[in-house]
Request: fold
Amino acid sequence: MSRAAAIARAHRHFDDGTFFADLKRRIAFHTESQVPESRPHLYGYLREEIGPKLSALGYRTKVHENPVVPGGPFLTAERWEGEGLPTVLTYGHGDVVRGQEGSWAENRDPWMLQKVGERWYGRGTADNKSQHSINLAALGFVLAERGRLGFNSRILIETSEEIGSPGLAEFCAQARDELTADILIGSDGPRLSPERPTIFMGTRGALNFDLTVNLRKGGHHSGNWGGLLANPGVILAHAIASLIDAKGRVLLRDIVPHSIPNSIRNALADCEVSGGDDAPAIDPWWGEPGLTAAEKVFAWNTFEVLAFSTGNPLKPVNAVPPTASAHCQIRFTVDRDPKTFLPAIRRHLDARGFPMVEVKASKEVIMHATRVDPDHPAAQWAAASLEATTGVKPAVLPNLGGSLPNDCFADTLGMPTIWVPHSYAACSQHAPNEHVLEPLLREGLAIMTGLFWDMGEAPPPREA
Reply:
C-alpha cells in the first residue's frame, strides 16, 4: 500500500484502454446546454453515467433540480469517512457547447471519441468531460490502494457551465450544508504550456457589454448626404479608440489594476505562456507595456472588442448607415470592482464628446474574479504534490486568464480553491476539432491520484 502503487494503478487504467472506454461513453451523451432539446441528455449523463460510477465508490448521490431557469440539473455526491478529517469538494461540469456537426475535419462525429495519433477528438474531451473523469477515477485509485480516502469527499457536477452557470450560486447557497468543505480541488481550463504541470487558484472575471450609436432611422445615400450626416461607425470607432490605443494599452485607467502585488509577480516570473504547436503566435507589442506575457494574461485587465457592426458588412451599399454597435468585454482580476466599470466608461465617453454612445451591459451572466495568493499554504501544498509526482516544478498561477464560476466556491462557500488543468490552450475548445492530448491525460491521472493520496496522508493546514 503506497502512493507509488496507487499511481501505478492510474497508469494501468490508462494503458489498458479503460479510461478511453469510460470517456467514449461520456462523450456520446449530447449534453449541449445551449440546446433545449438536449436537456434529457443532461439528466442521463448524471443519472446513468456519473451517479453509478460514484455509487460504486461508496458515495451517496443525488440529482437536484436547478433553482433557476434555464439551468440544468446538478449532481451531488458524498463519501463521509469521519469527523475531524479534512473535507474536499470536487467540481466538474457535464455540459458542452454545441456539437457543430459537419464542421469537423475529416467529417468527424463530435459525439464519437476518436484517437488520431496522440490526439483524442470529441465534443467535451477538453471541456470538461476528460478533466472531471480524471479526477473521479483518481479518487477510485486511492480507495482501491488504501481502502479509504483518508478525507471526506464531496462532489458537485453541474450541467449549465457553458451558458454561464445559471443557478449555481443559488444552489451553493441553498445546499451549503452538503457542499461546505475545507478546500475545492477541481480541473478545467488549459495548462500554461502542454509540457508543464499547472495549478491555478482562481480566475479572471468577465464583463460583457455593448456600445451603440443610434443616430437616425434608415440609411441615406452617401453621394447626397456624405459629409453632411454624422457617420455612427466612425464615431464609435473613435469612441473605442479613446478607451484603448492602437497597441492594445487600455487608456481608461479606472478599469485596470493600480499595480501587481509582489507575490503575484514572483509567482509569474518563471511562467512562459505557450499554447502548443497549433497556438497562434503572441504579439509582443500588444497590451500593457512593461508587463511580461504571463502578467498580461494572468495579472492585468484587458479590453476586447468581440464584434463590431455598422451598415451591412455582407452586402454593403452606398449609404451612410444609421447605427453602429460593438460587443465588448473586460477581463478583470480581483484588483478592481466590476461594478465600477460601466459608470467609468460612461464618464470617460461623456468627457470626450461621445454622449451619443450608449453603454449597456449585455444579458450574459457576469463571471466574477477570484484569487488565492500563491503563498497560501494550500497552493504550496498542491505545488509540492505535483512536483513529487512529475519531477517537474509546476507553474503556479494566481488565477486563470479565462473565467469560471469559481466565486461560488471561493465567496459563496468560502474556501480556498485549487485547480489542476489537464488540457492545453490549442485544444480547439468550443470549436470544431476539440481534442485532448494523450500524454496530458495519462499524466493527469497520476497527478490527481498523487494529490488525493497526499490529501489523505499529509493535508495542507486547515483554515479556521
User: Anything to note?
Assistant: The domain at 3-203+370-457 is CATH 3.40.630.10 (Aminopeptidase). The radius of gyration is 24 Å. The longest helix spans residues 125-146.
